[in-house]
Every structure is written in structure tokens, then in C-alpha cells.
Amino acid sequence: MKVAASVLLFLLPSVAFAVEGSGQEFSFLASFLQMIAALALVIGLILITWHFSGKLMRGLPVGNQLLSKHIRLIETRYLGPKKSLMLVEVSGEYLLLSNSDAGLTFIKQIDMLEEIEVIEEISEQSSFATLLTRLRQIS
Fold first, then answer.
1. Strand partners, 63
2. In the chain, which residue ranges form alpha helices assigned H by DSSP?
3. Of 44, 53, 55, 97, which Cα lies nearest the Cα of 74?
């Protein structure tokens, strides 16, 4: 069935060209058949490419599968351009690391995550609002 459909799709442009080249006037049927054949050919190529690329990509690990299940990035804080602090969990232990141009540097091992004091960040709007209130108090 697939072979018959593909042969038909490959023959449609030649049939349309034969009808067009027979010396008759412009035929909407021939143009329509040519357009349908070209569309079927393009969609067929897209589906074939998708099928084979899917087969090739199934063997490759995707995203987080490259990482071990025992290593997890908890949080990253950027301190400046190309400088950051990273909190990483490795097999239940929490490590504080420094990342910069020089490389990755171990800073401290944190025994329990509960020991880390959580500080709520002040949003830019509220800090701007507090700045305005301070300016009003000064004036």
C-alpha cells in the first residue's frame, strides 16, 4: 500500500506536466495536481527526516540524564559577571562552591540544609519604594 501511494505521488507531477505540455490552455486541474504532489513530497520528506532523527536521538541521553541522580544543583547566586556561588547536593551532603573565571572552588560543606538561614529577598519595587520614603523623610 505504501509503495503504491509513493509511486502515485511520484507520478502525479509527470501526469500534470504531460497534461500541461499537450498544447492546451492553462489547466487548473493540472496545477492543482502538481501542487498536491509537491505538498505530499515535502510532507513525506519531513516525516521521513523526523522518523530517522527520532531513531538516532533515542540512544542519546537527554538533559538531566547526563547528570548522575546523586548530584543536584540546589541554588545559584550570581555575584557579578562570571562569578557565582552554587549550593550543590551530592549524595545527601550539601556543598557550597564558588564559580569564577579561575574555575570551581570548594568553600564549605554544610551539614544540614535547615542550618541555612533563609533570607527573603526584597523585590525591586519595594526597595525603590523604601528609597522614595527615605528621600521624602530627608526633604
1. none
2. 2-20, 28-58, 124-138
3. 97
CA distance 16 to 28: 10
Q: Cβ of 84: how many Cβ atoms within 10 Å?
A: 14
Compute the distance between CA of residue 83 and CA of residue 98 in angstroms, rounded to an integer: 8
Q: Which residue has the cell 568553600?
A: 107
Reported as a single tens digit per residue, the pLDDT across 12-70 is 666 555 555 555 577 888 889 999 999 999 999 999 998 888 777 776 655 555 545 78
Residue 133 corresponds to which cell in the numbers above?
Answer: 520614603
Tell me which residue has cell 509513493: 6
Could you give the count of Cα atoms lying within 13 Å of 133 in the half-sphere of its Cβ? 6
Report which of 38, 45, 29 is spatially closest to residue 9, judged by C-alpha positions. 38
pTM: 0.36
Distance separating alpha carbons of residues 15 and 34, to the nearest angstrom: 9
